[in-house]
Amino acid sequence: MSANTQPPTAPPVPQDIAALAAMLLELDDMLVSCMRCGFCQAVCPVYGATMREADVTRGKIALLENLAHHIITDAESVNEKLNRCLLCGSCQANCPSGVKIMDIFLRARSIVMGYLGLSPIKKMIFRGFLVRPKLFDGLLGLSKTFQGLFIRDDHNAAGTYQAPLFSAFIGDRHFPALAKEPFHTTTSALAEKAGPGRPVAALFPGCVSDKIFPQLAQATVKILRKHQTGIFLPAGQNCCGIPALASGDRKTFDQLVRQNLAIFKTGTFDYLVTPCATCAATIKEIWPKFSNDYTPEEQATLKEMSEKAIDITAFIVDVLKAELPESAQGGRRVTYHDSCHLKKSLNVSSQPRRILKNIPGLEFVEMPEADRCCGSGGSFTLAHYDLSKKIGQRKRDNIVSVKPDLVAAACPACMMQIMDMLSRNGDNIPVKHVAELYADSLG
Predict the structure, then answer these.
(1) Of 56, 73, 100, 370, which has fewest CB within 10 angstroms of its CB?
(2) Among candidate residues 434, 426, 227, the one with its CA nearest the CA of residue 337
(3) Distance (Å, rounded) from C-alpha 415 to C-alpha 219?
(4) Could you read off the pLDDT of 94-104 as tens digits, one per residue?
(5) pLDDT for res 433
(6) In 222-345, which ranges are E strands?
(7) Environment class of residue 30 by beta-carbon count within 10 Å: exposed (0-12), middle (13-18) or buried (19+)?
């Protein structure tokens, strides 16, 4: 080797090789049931937009079968391929072999991040702010104060804004502004008794409902009170953890889950109600699958929260047995988007439709491909915005094809994505959560 020749850069070494090896073996055991049948191809929204075999689930699973080798030879490429996935669960819901695809992808991302390490930006966001709710709220509070200097109102029914000065970082997104008063500043904690024979509900608003759509959290409280449901709302709630886990940051995910466990174990409740489909699916489906190394006490609290977690629309119909008499036809036309985590993870689909069909003054119309992903996928829309827009455009086209006066959804993240797509196309159509519309009908 000449004096001017530099030796090859050594790959990063994970802190715990034994833990990484154990995770790889666990992942291998989960991959064997994939039959390569291709049923995932027909329903994958990413493949539908790119027509690339590498974007289909079976293509990613083929990559994962020799993950240890691929990590060593080209870890960045593996990471890029794994992250070209919305984690919508469409493939898992359509898999005849019952492959636990979401578990596989989440664990694979954790393995790759365990090898590569988090980027400085994600480390700052997840480990610097997200696990410190007071600091995180303070930062967003400061942003809220000055956002008016940088955002431009789109002046449409969707209620979106743009930020041309930051287009280099966020593109040409149309987005809702941070709320002037987050939910936690107006309603920090509640401990209300239930009426005779009524249940007690612990309320988990979720980050987006708290900081961007506080009217949704307020609508949920209104619904619970109207039905004489007891409310346990502990102060200091934190993120459910799915943004960190989806980015492969298992450490932050565990820290967020444990913080919430400590907060909710202080109360007694019959159900854990949330207006966020993603939070409901995370608490109910994902928390238990990543809790093997938790203490027995933590596992007991987690099991209770998981088993009692329920989406607000399912709670209204299945638990409260709310009287929903068939409303007269006519009025504003409303269509409904099935959030992936709600329908494909929790099998909640008929309940929000039943609510919408029975709200006076609304006429329900079904859109084509109502359960096809809108293209949000949390961090997916940040990392792959052009692809997210292409998927979202198909959702927008399906929405406007039925000429609705408004669009309903049951997931705040989906609401933001649909607002973006409608606004950028000049469609003057508002987007509302099903719970908001139901709460308004209660007077």
Answers:
(1) 73
(2) 434
(3) 16
(4) 999 888 889 88
(5) 98
(6) 230-233, 271-274, 309-311, 332-336
(7) middle
Burial degree of 426 (CB within 10 A; 0-12, 13-18, 19+): exposed
Residue ranges of the chain whose pLDDT lies below 70: 1-21, 168, 326-329
Cα–Cα distance for residue pair 297/313, rounded to 1 Å = 30
Dihedral angle computed from the Cα positions of residues 241, 244, 250 and 252, in that order, rounded to the nearest 10 degrees: -70
Kindly give the pairing relationship between strand 200-203 and strand 161-162: unpaired
Question: Residue 95, class by beta-carbon neighbours within 10 Å (0-12 exposed, 13-18 middle, 19+ buried)?
Answer: buried
Nearest in space to 213 (alpha carbons), one of 259, 149, 286, 158: 158
- Sequence-distant (≥ 6) Cβ neighbours of residue 388 within 8 angstroms: 375, 376, 377, 380, 381, 417
CA atoms within 13 Å, Cβ hemisphere of 293: 5
Alpha-carbon separation of residue 293 from 64, 103, 288, 307 (angstroms): 24, 16, 11, 19
Helix (H, G, I), strand (E, B) or coil at 279: helix
Bridge partners of 98, per DSSP, are: none
E-assigned strand segments in 288-365 = 309-311, 332-336, 362-364
pTM of the model: 0.91
* Helical packing angle, 101-116 and 57-64, nearest 10°: 50
The pLDDT value recorded for residue 15 is 47
Going 188 to 191 to 195 to 197, the CA torsion angle's sign is positive
Q: What is the bridge-based pairing of β-strands 332-336 and 190-192?
A: unpaired
Are 362 and 110 spatial neighbours (Cβ–Cβ below 8 Å)?
Answer: no
Q: Dihedrals φ, ψ of 305, to 5°?
A: -65, -40
The predicted pLDDT at position 54 comes to 85
How many whole angstroms separate alpha carbon 44 and alpha carbon 186? Answer: 41
pLDDT for 265: 94
Q: Which of 345, 371, 202 is nearest to 282 (CA)?
A: 345
Structure tokens at 88: 């919508």
Amino acid in position 385: Y
